[in-house]
# Entry
Amino acid sequence: MDVTETRGIILFSRDHKEKDKLVKIFTESYGKQMFYVKGAHRKNNPLTAALLNFTEGVYFGTIRSEGLSFLNGAKEITPFRHIQEDIFVTAYGTYILNLVDAAIEDRLYDPHLYGFTHQALTQLDKGADPEIITNIFELQILQRFGVTPQLDHCAVCGDQKGPFDYSSKYGGLLCERHFDHDPHRYHADPRALHFARLFMNISYEQINSIQLKVETKQGLRQFIDQLYEEYVGLHLKSKRFIDQMQNWSQLLLKPQRAPEGNNIKEDTPPTSEP
Ligand SMILES: [Zn+2]
# Structure
């Protein structure tokens, strides 16, 4: 069998028997693959670092079209160290990788999603706002779930300015003048929708200057949760963990983290938003 190599991102790993591991890798060239790693728990196994969560590398092994693939080695190992070491960021990174795992079939070649995932992790690792990075990811990966909400303009008149609300009936936005077309519209925060529209098409290189007020973030969270509830119906443990973390982080961790300059974005003055 041919040994082949591909760039990849570790999705997760779990122990298998006493000494071995099953490691799921999102490979750039062969989609998501489950690898059997023999003797992964041996001391000084050269693969140990390559198999840690939040690691990207070039992996080589035998890729099979059915069943498990086999991993022989790795090079150019690049850990996303900040994600690995910060419990907050780990939570968001885990959720993003869980979404990737849920959104596409195993073995499906999807280099675009690979690149997008790589960018999201890179941004998280650089200390960019994890909520914004995650919201952008959630909105743009909807397409892979076969969901394409129309967030570009009012579904009735084509208005592109807003303020908008979202309507399931129209599968898209309604401008203020056409709110009466759907009494069951989401009643979402118009500011949140403004940013959801933006996030739907933005690329990660463009986000450096975005800072959001806490209320706007909450509005976005609510809107995206509503979309996912209605169209995707996914209930990931990692997402629930983030929701819980939001609650206790206010009480416990933020005050401790702030003095370290760890890039927590507090509420910003209203002038920073359009
Ligand atoms: Zn309209």
In short: Residues 256-274 have pLDDT under 50 and may be disordered. Strands lie at 4-16, 20-27, 31-37, 55-62, 69-79, 150-154, 164-167, 172-175. Residues 154, 156-157, 159, 175, 177-178 surround zinc ion (CB under 6 Å). Residues 104 and 144 are 7 Å apart (CA to CA).
